[in-house]
Amino acid sequence: MTTRDQGGHGRSRGLAAPLLALWLGIGLAGCNALLDVENPNNVLAEDLENPEAAGNIVNGALWNIQDGYGYQLMVYSTVSNELHWIGSRDAFQELEFGWIDRPLNEFSDEAFKQFAPAFWVADNAIDILEGHLASGAGISDTTDLARAYLYGAFMYTVIADMFDDWAPSDMKLSGPPVGPAGMGQYYTTAIGYLDAAYAIVQGDGSDLERHVLAMRARAKHAQGVWNLIGTRPISPGNGLLSTSDAAAAAADAVLALAVDPGDWVWDFIYFAAGANGNIQTAVNDRFELRFGEEYIYPTGDDNERDKSLPLATPGDRGVRLQDPIDAKGDPRLDELMTPFEDGGENSDLRVLSARLMYLILAEDALARNDMAEFATNINTVRGFMNMSDWVDGGAGMPTALEILIHERRVNLFLQGYRLNDMYRFGVQAPGWQAASHAAADAGTFFPLTKAELESNCHLNPDFECTADNSFGGGG
Fold first, then answer.
1. Alpha carbons 153 and 24: distance in angstroms, whole number
2. Which of 225, 316, 363, 370 would bridge with 329, disulfide CB 3.0–4.6 Å?
3. Which residue from 292, 269, 288 is spatially nearest to 414, judged by alpha carbons?
4. Can you state the angle between helices 54-79 and 418-425, rounded to 10 degrees?
5. Any idea what the Cα angle at residue 151 is, between residues 420 and 167, rounded to 5°?
6. 402: part of which helix (H) or strand (E)?
7. Looking at residue 3, what is its pLDDT?
8. What are the backbone angles phi and psi of residue 217, rounded to the nearest 5°?
9. Can you tell me the distance from the alpha carbon of 110 to that of 220, in angstroms, rounded to the nearest whole number?
10. 257-283 pLDDT, tens per residue?
11. Residues 29, 40: contact at Cβ < 8 Å?
């Protein structure tokens, strides 16, 4: 069963970008007669403050998130070993070599320029809808506010997962960077948003309730991972979260919902008139990138996955990465890769899943050395595609830690987890150069890039920060 949220549409950047982006999202996402105008440039800020526009405002926020996230996921996955550079743009190669902490990398910079506005738009949507409730004006459907909290929490979580620093801003007003040590607070904000969302949807049995609870489990687990790797150098260990009980309790809450949909997922939906499919275009159309060499057997001409290879074991379909128990190309990768390939420039991106919840529970059990519970959760994930059970101490079986790392790798492919997992489990990508940031300083993530360094008055000494400073950036 696949449950999905369909979002709005919009695009932005520049000094007036957040408001423009919000409008574009509204204009394309909904059919609210209040905002049906011939010239969207004539829409005023006060029109967006109308409670009747609430649903479209939230759709616009989602559009911006999908647009920017796809680009940021692309550069993140290139640093990990999930994507492999094959094109003509050397900045991709620089990322694949592990040089992640370079503000001048053109693709890191472009990702930041597309991703940062979504941060402001998501928070602004929350501010607008909270304002309606506080003023007594009301909004027709409070689930719109719950969605706004969910999308905002996703932004805060991903930013903390992928960046070493962030500089929040208020539309045109630059904010000071929070610094690497301050990034952990973004998980706290995300969890607060999700608690507020859950207060709205609790008990309604909706997909939104499930997504809110699952995102809370993801944010709490990510917070634990950040506590392991967010402050460098990383302390040696096995990479397991020693304080994973909060994330496990949140995952349990998802699985305890009255209606169990089984192997559910939440995907970001992309389509021709919607958000740009940046990562999809780079892999499926421009062929600047393809799936990593450890994952697939490529064809000789365009380097796509070679699904026509004569395979000794059914289920391989050009998948190089073997399941350590069934000794065949892991079909979970084929399951994720095929719709991505078939969708072309508009393939969907996975956000949350039942499998992530079970993997969080498995990790918590392993950290507590509860091997029976660990096996139950790992084998539930494996059972979704009829994979053979993992048996503790069984002949030829991988260790518990090895099977956990593998299951996270194949079930969470291209979902924004791999680089963090590589750091905490001591895994290096084959392309990383020995002196690169990723190889030599594990735990390094993306910096504030050229666009922010040049435009933020707190970072550029040529600008003076004033009350009406208009040198924005940073979201």
1. 22
2. 316
3. 292
4. 40
5. 65
6. helix 400-411
7. 36
8. -65, -40
9. 29
10. 977 789 999 999 998 877 788 999 999
11. no
